[in-house]
Request: fold
Amino acid sequence: MSDDSIGTSPRGTPTGQLPVSPNNPCPFLRALVANGYVGGHVVPLSQIAEMVGLASGETGSAQRDVRIKTRMVAVIANGLGPFSVLKSATSGAVLDELRDGPLDKHGGGSRILDVDAKVHEDEIARLAGFGKDRQNPDGGTERGLTADEIDAFMKANLKRDGDKARWYYPMLMKGEWPVLLKILGKGKGSERYLSVAEVRTLFVERRLPDRITARLPKPAAGR
Ligand code: HEM
Reply:
């Protein structure tokens, strides 16, 4: 099975969610848009930074650090030219125009989402293959990836991309899966892992776990 039936058309949108453009390839931002935490088009950098900062669960200067880093990513997401950067800084990032932007690795990533924003289950199974069954702090066991396993996964993604992978992709990738592990991870230290089941929910249902949404303000629209 390669595709999932939950697409991005309003018809395929799970009840209560807002449709998300296929030109937004970021699973984390897709969940924020689908559930009304941020709009789907032009979103002020301060708003994106606030949501990511709150979702991180950090407080004080650590949260300020997350917010600054998020702004730095978002300000170049729609283009590296001075006009694009100025436009992003003053009006916001255009979340439905991220595809083909400077952050788009064109297949150098997991390939879980394709250009039509369809989810490829076989790629989720590939991700799971890099992990191990782990003791879930909430009970039972589940498949998950530690930081080292995520690193191996990202390296394999670049290798798969062959000559197409650009030199700066490893830097971009540091802000994706490792940050997702930081936010969603369960357990502590080197044993902290990213649950494959939660990754699947994020990509397929565009939903963050309740323990994360509990950190966010009530969404403005769409629930
Ligand atoms: C907490 C904040 C964020 C997390 C956890 C996160 C996580 C991720 C993950 C896991 C991927 C998938 C990579 C893959 O499939 O291999 C991704 C892709 C992407 N993200 Fe984010 N992201 C965050 C914030 C942002 C922001 C602020 C932007 C820009 C405004 C952004 C833009 C993108 C883009 C353009 C891609 C596609 C890159 C590719 O080609 O794989 N993300 N992100």
